[in-house]
């Protein structure tokens, strides 16, 4: 049973700028999907259509078996949340507490319940001590955690990260990725948009987009054995995979693939 | 950029910090109307005493309020000069001819230079300014040697002095009230208070919730945008731009080269912010629950009663 199914979706911004072309994907509940592609390949467009920020010109999107359209968008957004690239541009509240509350306020959740949930989810993302802090006193990674808490508090079980780690320093970045791993283990569906193959290797399956079309959508295990796919889409291969594509010995290749996946 | 303080809010724990922002806003409005209804200096001095009393029980330092007055210092001086020069009622207090001649103008220039040098010491700026103004007056009045190339007679009437003191005290009281409000209320609480007070306007199509959200978002983004401006300035300075020197025309060009990228970035930001808000189910105009709630307490009742008494008192005085 797939939680997201995208059927033959096409979207273009205008005649010259194509967004998506006949995209078909099925995503199962609890899966971790990486969407890879270089700039302008349609990754972010796909993410925006999934949360109903952009309406595809043709095709349909079903979330939890419900067709996404103007009327259902409000209900469906409770299930699917998105963390954007720039931590500053999605921080709505004046304090951490206000920001986590923002989504719940929109859902008209009673105040007492909100306060409980804010405590719970702030604890969960490790931001409990920062509830009264203002965004200017937080690091980028902390702001992203706040954004996650705000989405979790709306009871979303699908989380989209639209290059959410790209503006973070390496340390906070790996910290955030570790946290996304635990969320995935708890059963949340993760869709991670990135142009970093290293990051994408964490996913169960990789969706590679090229000029708005699905170039490949396969299990990570299988895809890393096909370095040509990455090269054709202008994606930079991790050194280990680059080496693996050059050596002849099957034994060494397998060692390297194993290394890449466990890293 | 943690050092930017938006508004005049100073954290504290006095009486006014515990008051509900709605009470404070309404009280300030009513007290201001009351002050405008007072008609003579005696009534006004009672009001001034009351204002100082308010400051004292609120444990708000008078020095901080005085600093707030600096902004309107020029306005006060203008009021004073205009009232004295233009009001021609009551008894004549003094009549004098002011002489403009070679000596008096030279003396004024000297006094000016002396004043600017003393200013460098950095203390008693206000007193120095007053001394300079009076100095100019006495020079013009008493340095009457040689031929005047211009002279006029300045007559000061009793009513002129009275009115100027009256107007200045009135402005002082009003500024004190508003300063107490802005010193003791966070900008977010202030907007929240205004939002609640404007809520009845929903009937005529004005949505105060959206209005308040716009204001609090702007407040939220001021430090971010400020940060950005500094980055752009640094980027431009590294390529040779100089914001501090050059002719006015050059400076304007520099400012435009700063403003254009700022605007573009601000637009991009707001677009992303709109996406983020929409994806978290924000629908403009739709009712929402609130995490921050304002609550009236007993001290709000006391303050309300105090304000009403003052207001009623002013009406009674006006009618009698």
Share of β-strand residues of chain B: 5-15%
Our count of helices of chain A gives: 11
Structural class of chain B: mainly alpha
* CATH topology-level fold name of the domain at 29-54 and 68-224 in chain A: Rossmann fold
End-to-end gap of chain A: 30 Å
Unreliable spans of chain B are 1-5
Tell me the β content of chain A: 15-25%
The strand order across the widest sheet of chain A is 6-7-8-3-9-10
H and E order of chain B: HHHHHEHHEHHHHH
Q: Residue share in helices of chain A?
A: 25-40%
Rg of chain A to the nearest angstrom? 19 Å
Mean pLDDT metric of chain B: 83
Classify the oligomer: heterodimer
| Shape call of chain B | flat
The largest interface is: A-B, 40 and 30 residues
Summarize the model shown.
Chain A has 263 residues and is α/β, with parallel strands linked by helices. Chain A has eleven helices and ten strands. The N terminus of chain B is likely disordered.
Characterize the structure shown:
The complex is a heterodimer of chains A (263) and B (320). In chain A, 40% of the residues lie in helices and 24% in strands. Chain A is α/β, with parallel strands linked by helices and 263 residues long. Chain A has a domain at 29-54 and 68-224: Rossmann fold, CATH 3.40.50.300. In chain A, strands 6-7-8-3-9-10 form a six-stranded mixed β-sheet, sandwiched between helices. Chain A has a four-stranded antiparallel β-sheet with strand order 2-1-4-5, covered by helices on one side. In chain A, helix 3 (96-106) runs parallel beside helix 5. Chain B is 69% helix and 5% strand. Chain B has twelve helices and two strands. Chain B has helices at 15-18, 21-37, 41-57, 62-69, 73-86, 102-119, 125-142, 158-184, 187-198, 208-238, 248-279, 298-319, and strands at residues 92-100, 150-157. Chain B has a two-stranded antiparallel ribbon. In chain B, helix 2 packs parallel to helix 12 (298-319) and helix 4 (62-69) packs across helix 8 (158-184). Chain A binds chain B through residues 48, 51-53, 74, 77-78, 81-82, 84, 86, 88-94, 97-98, 101-111, 114-115, 118, 135-137, 150-151, 154, and chain B through 1-2, 188, 216-217, 219-220, 223-224, 227, 269, 272-273, 275-283, 286-293.
């Amino acid at each position: 049973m797939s939680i997201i199914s995208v059927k033959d979706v096409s979207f273009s911004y205008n005649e010259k700028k194509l967004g998506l072309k006949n995209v078909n994907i099925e995503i199962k509940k609890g899966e971790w999907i990486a969407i890879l592609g270089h700039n302008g390949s349609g990754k972010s467009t796909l993410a925006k259509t999934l949360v109903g920020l952009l309406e595809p010109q043709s095709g349909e999107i079903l979330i939890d078996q419900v067709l996404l359209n103007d009327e259902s968008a409000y209900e469906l957004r409770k299930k699917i949340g998105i963390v954007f690239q720039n931590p500053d541009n999605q921080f709505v509240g004046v304090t951490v507490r206000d920001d986590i509350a923002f989504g719940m306020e929109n859902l008209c959740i009673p105040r007492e319940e909100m306060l409980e949930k804010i405590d719970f989810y702030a604890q969960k993302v490790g931001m409990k001590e920062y509830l009264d802090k203002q965004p200017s006193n937080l690091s980028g990674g902390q702001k992203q955690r706040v954004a996650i808490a705000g989405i979790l508090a709306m009871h979303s079980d699908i989380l989209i990260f639209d290059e959410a780690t790209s503006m973070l320093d390496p340390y906070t970045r790996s910290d955030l990725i570790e946290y996304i791993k635990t969320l995935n283990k708890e059963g949340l569906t993760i869709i991670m948009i990135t142009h970093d193959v290293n990051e994408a290797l964490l996913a169960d399956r990789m969706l590679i987009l090229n000029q708005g079309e699905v170039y490949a959508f396969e299990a990570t295990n299988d895809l890393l054995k096909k370095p040509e796919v990455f090269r054709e889409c202008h994606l930079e291969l991790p050194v280990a995979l680059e080496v693996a594509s050059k050596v002849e010995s099957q034994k060494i290749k397998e060692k390297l693939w194993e290394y890449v996946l466990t890293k | 950029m943690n050092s930017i303080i938006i508004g005049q809010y100073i954290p504290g724990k006095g009486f006014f910090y515990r008051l509900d922002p709605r009470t404070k806003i309404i009280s300030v409005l009513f007290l201001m109307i009351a002050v405008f209804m007072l008609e003579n200096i005696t009534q006004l001095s009672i009001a001034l005493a009351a204002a100082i009393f308010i400051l004292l029980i609120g444990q708000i330092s008078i020095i901080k309020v005085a600093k707030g007055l600096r902004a309107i210092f020029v306005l006060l001086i203008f009021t004073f000069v205009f009232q004295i020069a233009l009001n021609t009622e009551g008894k004549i207090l003094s009549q004098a001819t002011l002489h403009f001649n070679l000596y008096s103008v030279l003396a004024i220039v000297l006094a000016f230079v002396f004043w600017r040098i003393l200013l460098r010491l950095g203390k008693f700026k206000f007193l120095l300014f007053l001394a300079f103004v009076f100095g100019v007056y006495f020079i013009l009045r008493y340095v009457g040697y040689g031929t005047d190339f211009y002279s006029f007679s300045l007559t000061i009437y009793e009513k002129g002095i009275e009115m100027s003191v009256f107007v200045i005290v009135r402005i002082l009281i009003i500024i004190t009230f508003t300063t107490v409000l802005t010193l003791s209320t966070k900008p977010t609480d202030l907007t929240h208070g205004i939002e609640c007070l404007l809520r009845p306007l929903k009937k005529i199509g004005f949505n105060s919730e959206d209005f308040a959200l716009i204001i609090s978002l702007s407040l939220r983004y001021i430090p971010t945008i400020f940060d950005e401006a500094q980055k752009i300035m640094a980027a431009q300075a590294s390529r040779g731009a100089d914001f501090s020197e050059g002719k006015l025309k050059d400076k304007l060009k520099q400012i435009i080269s700063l403003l254009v990228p700022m605007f573009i970035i601000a637009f991009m930001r707001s677009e992303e912010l709109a996406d983020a808000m929409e994806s978290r189910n924000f629908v403009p105009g739709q009712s929402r629950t609130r995490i921050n709630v304002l609550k009236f307490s007993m001290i709000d009742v006391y303050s309300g009663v105090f304000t009403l008494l003052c207001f009623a008192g002013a009406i009674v005085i006006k009618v009698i």
